[in-house]
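Notes to self after the Tuesday call (sharing in case useful).
The group wants a holo model before anyone commits to mutagenesis around the pocket. I volunteered. Ligand is magnesium ion. Logging inputs and output together so the record is complete.
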Amino acid sequence: MTDKKLTPDEVAAQAQAAAVEAMMAKAFSNRASTTPAGDAPDTPALDTQRCGLIAIVGKPNVGKSTLLNALVGQKVSITSRKAQTTRHRITGMKTVGPTQFVFVDTPGFQTRHGNALNRSLNRTVVGAVNDVDLIVFVVEAGQFNQADEKVLSLLPAGTPAILLANKFDLIHRRGDIAPWLQMMQTKRDFAEFVPMSANSAKDVERVFGICEKYLPQQAWMYEADALTDRSDRFMAAEMIREKLFRLTGDELPYTSTVIIDKYEQEGNLRKIAATIVVERDGHKGMIIGDKGEKLKRMGTEARHELEALTGNKVFLEIWVKVRSGWADNEDRVKSFGYE
Ligand code: GDP
Ligand code: MG
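Result:
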């Protein structure tokens, strides 16, 4: 019997396959070095504390806010199937053992329309990636297009970056990802490659151990049990906006925003009055719906979220108002709370 001789192409292909296999093995063997505890830990001595800022960046809709919420263990950043859901820099934290992870969620970089709102969103993204200890660059596993490339080009070269290939549950065969993974290695010298699903608790837990080593030894910035630096008032506007995004058709949410007119606390009751601002008269009806049905549903769902978040009873009133062209007007965009 004679050994079948391999052609040089076959030898090269085998070597390449082995290299990819090794990369995959490393990616999948990253394990958490600390296990998040259910309760807030005792505060360790100052000189053993570790704390750092981690920016979560990527194009719209790759799962950044879903990831942040899963990491924090509570909804602090709203999510939907629509791009542009996140409009603000949202900070969420989680303290695990001696380490406080301070995650910064960002709007996905907008490349489609150049209006005042989108310019503001892009400034928020660029501002958030400077002065962080670590960047988590989120992409959809198996995908990389111009919008991803644009975000990648904005990342400072000197900061370690992890490539987080999210929505891995949508990839049916692990092997299918190998050529993509190889291509991604040429895009930047990523510190780690993390294929995962933000929907999987086990995967999310792994992220702490992976990020921890990039955070400096320094005193914590927040209390051990802090979850976000955003106010209750802000969270109220965000929860209403999430329902607006989830319960209306495609065009509407991008041209709407929510402002809080009143936020009062009386004992265990929170009284909140909010206005949904839309650009056109025709939009108003789409939000209110037949016999006020849609607006009512938004109110009920937002109220449930806010009751869960605050542990209080919530009384919520929502109005709808037309302010034509608000998203094109720099002053208005600012006055509605965008940076
Ligand atoms: P962002 O724009 O990057 O903040 O994305 P979101 O967090 O708002 O998520 C966009 C959509 O992707 C939502 O419908 C999420 O439920 C969905 N999503 C997020 N992570 C995953 C994941 O790991 N797997 C799948 N299948 N869907 C996900
Ligand atoms: Mg988001």
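Two things stood out.
The first helix runs from residue 8 to 29.
The chain has a mean pLDDT of 86.
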